[in-house]
Amino acid sequence: MGLDRRVFFKLLGATGITLAIGKETAAKPTSKSEIEFNGILYDSSRCAGCRTCEYECAAAHGLPEPKAEVEVIRKTDETCNTVVNTYQTSKGEVYMKRQCMHCNEPACVAACLTQAMHKDKTGPVTWNGDKCMGCRYCMVSCPFDSPKFEFHSANPKIQKCDMCFERQKAGEKPTCVTNCPNEALMFGKRRDLIKEARRRIYEKPDLYVDHIYGERDAGGTGWLYLASVPFEELGMNTQLQQSSYPALTKGFLYSVPTIFVLVPTLLAGIHQATKNNHPKVEEDEY
Amino acid sequence: MDGFSYSNIFETKGIEYLVIIAFLVLLIPFWIVLNKQSRMTKQIQSALGVLSAKILRIPQGLFYFRNHTWMYMEKTGVAKIGLDDLLIHLTGKVKFSTIKSSGEMISKGDLLAVIAQNGKLLRIFSPVSGTITDTNSMLNESNGELMEDPYGKGWIYKIKPSNWIAETKSCYFAEEATDWSAKELERFKDFLARTMRNYTPETAMIIMQDGGEICDHSLSALPDEIWNDFQREFLNPDQLQMPAK
Amino acid sequence: MNTNYQIALDHDGKSIWKFLLSELKPKGKFFTPFNIISIPVMILGLALIVYRFIYGIGSITNLTQDTPWGLWIGFDVVTGVAFAGGAYVLTFMVYILNMQKYHSIVRVTVLNGFLAYVFYAGALLLDLGRPWHVVNPIIGNSFGVSSVLFLVAWHFLLYMIAQLIEFSPAIAEWLGARRAHKILSGMTIAAVIFGITLSTLHQSGLGALYLMAKDKIHPLWYSEFIPVMFFVSSIFAGLSMVIFEGSISHKVFFSQISEKHHKEQNYIIRGLSKICAGTMFAYFFLKLLVFIHEQHWDLLNTPMGYWYLLEMFGFVLLPMMLFFYSYRTNNISMVKIAAILTMLGVILNRLNVTVIGFRWDMAIRYIPSWMEFIVTLAVIFTEIWIFRWVINRMPVLRDSPSWVNEPK
Lengths: 286, 245, 408
Description:
Shape of chain A: elongated
Number of strands of chain C: 0
Shape of chain C: globular
Distance between the termini of chain C: 11 Å
Number of strands of chain A: 9
Order of helices and strands of chain C: HHHHHHHHHHHHHH
Radius of gyration of chain C: 22 Å
CATH architecture of the domain at 38-104 and 164-234 in chain A: 2-Layer Sandwich
CATH architecture of chain C: Up-down Bundle
Largest sheet of chain A: 3 strands, mixed
Distance between the termini of chain A: 48 Å
CATH class of chain C: Mainly Alpha
Structural class of chain A: alpha+beta
Oligomer: heterotrimer
């Protein structure tokens, strides 16, 4: 039948185009743009625990001023983008600054169904209040528990470090970096920061633990860490997988089109085959 | 992924979802057209004249009686009576004569109508008792074309039944009617096989073709002795007294 | 006879609006035990919901920054949807495999499934921080296609539409709309195929939601096979719910069900128990395979390990054997016990993945507040009220009106 053939060819054409596009994207190495990620290198050995970055960050973002006296190990929350914790270790007091890690392939961005969480090509992961529905799936997915939610607000927002994205667009460096008195924070291209970190480890092998935290953790993060004691002692999770978290859902999401194509066809076929069956119901089985 | 610039492993997902939607939308016409064959086969079959249970029309909401009449109770309390599709397929085009007229009272088993084809007759007896309220005058005038629609325009009488609850106890309804019609067709084939033995071979040629399927309007090719036998075995009033199962 | 082409039948001369209004009046006694319990709960639930919208989610829940999802997601959405799986399994059996013996329960199961999805999707809106933005991923303001939740949300929406189409012939029969009935009945098979495909994906999708929370869920429950597990367990979860709910409806709505269907009931339950037994047998071995694959032998000797063994043996293997045994010995009451055990097992499994096993190593565990329970109960009771309203008016349990099978 003429109509039949036409429909068949249309379908064939659509399939062909999909395969062609798919193949093309897979064949290209990666969408190589000229823009590379920015990042921040935090050197714990240079950090004095003065917490100036906390105060400056709160002031710049309109958050409440941090308390002066703190004793326990803190986490960030909906009123606070970053904390600097003090750890008593074998090498004395060591400080560790925590905030959003701005991963290369963020779990929160993959998780967000409204694209409220967005990974900019320059690096920062930002939150868009106009799109967010407050589903908190980003919080479930983030291995670092960075996004924090305003549970007690009628119009809750997600609070986390945004790497001072607005300042970066204006050509400036993030607030914490510019205000650190000891230059513990360094801002630059991620590629250069890793080189710098390696250089520091190489020049002072007794000072640093030979590991850059964030180089490959969770597939690589924008925030990199150097420390003088093992990271486990500083409250960092070193058991994280070394590949990106969104890759965990890739298998499932890519089976969706396959199922959508195969299952309806299969079901329609079975229906066609069985629809003229007239099963007899035995009376004595009641 | 080199870890220094932006890459998106889900880049093509948006396009993929669009293709899936296109596929599902195209699948519907694709499937419908692919399977249109079967209706064509049915039409060809009936054109060739092979009578099988599949082409019988048996609306599910009617009462069917063992003498191949049907009754439909309307909300107003008046019932319509007519002949079922199987009978029409067996006889082919017939001329109608209604015996009773509007206002007459009849009992179950009374003669209602006579259908005739080239001098061969079949008598139709009433399945219920009651008062006739209307007769289908168009039936008497037409050439039997109204029998193309035996359940619609082909109704014979409108009757106000007087005892229909008791009298419809022994009739068929819904899926039972479909099963019964198929069985009646088989019974008719047996009937033909039996009577064939009593008559000349010319009847045998018309009946048996395609491995046992009979052709449409089989009775029209047969002589009136067979019509009388058919009347006795299938349409007589004693049929109405027999239990439904 | 004349063929009717009205959209709505003349109901004793009343217009369609008067008819609808009259249908809103309650039928039957008002002060039944169920009503007495459910009405205060529903009112309290409504009050709590209003409070939640004024003062934020944290005001009535115990959710924290580390456990952002609690009872409402873990139980209402994830478990509730698993139980609604009976709809796709039954429509598969009746419309695709043409197993006509189950035809009489398809409608009520589809109704149940539809109401479950509507109410649990509604409950989900309560859990959102900014529910008014829920239109964003729908109207195209922003499609987060990389997100499993995007897929799940869209599937919910499409599946509700498919189920509505599957159920709509019953509505058409209630309204007497013959033309609409004809059109809608023709669309049933397409809606069924679409619905089954969607179900396959979103039942497993609910499991896939947790794939990125690899470090947060206890290793005995986390694996890359969570989606497959959720899908398989939704089959017997749905069927157990059909058995359970069927037994209750049978007693409550006894008068509506025809003689023929009464006799069929036990026959159907036996058939379903056989299917459950088979599926649970496969599921048990799937779980075993995954356990071996993940190599967490040492974890079995911990408190969570015992809990895992309890779930596997007490609530999967045991009901499976009960189903098996009751099928062979035709013991209907044992089937019902097995169904209840299975349902408890599914609840346990879902809660283990989403709440109990999620962040199991925290010092202060998440325990839902009494207010979360009340809201959950209020949602369930409201769903039952609507269910009862529909059953009492539309031809779901009783037979369709006679005009359905008239000549066209």
